[in-house]
Specification:
about 70 residues, flat
């Protein structure tokens, strides 16, 4: 896919606990700008330290980073 990707890391708010997939923060953000594809790395129950660890585990897969939100 040629779209830029925006990776979202966080806890249940990013994951979208108790909402449908199309109502998660990453999904709604892509509705604002169709030029990118959201990638949701949120996990229900994660705290900020766990979200940061998830980012560290995956940082080598990111080829070009503009912004990271945790």
């Amino acid at each position: 896919d040629l779209k830029s990707k925006i990776w979202f890391f966080g806890g249940s708010t990013i994951w979208g606990t108790s909402v449908s997939d199309e109502n998660t923060i990453p999904s709604l953000s892509s509705d604002l700008n169709h030029n990118f594809q959201p990638v949701n790395f949120g996990e229900s129950g994660y705290n900020s330290g766990q979200a940061l660890n998830r980012l560290i585990e995956n940082i080598d897969k990111i080829k070009f980073v503009k912004k990271i939100y945790v």
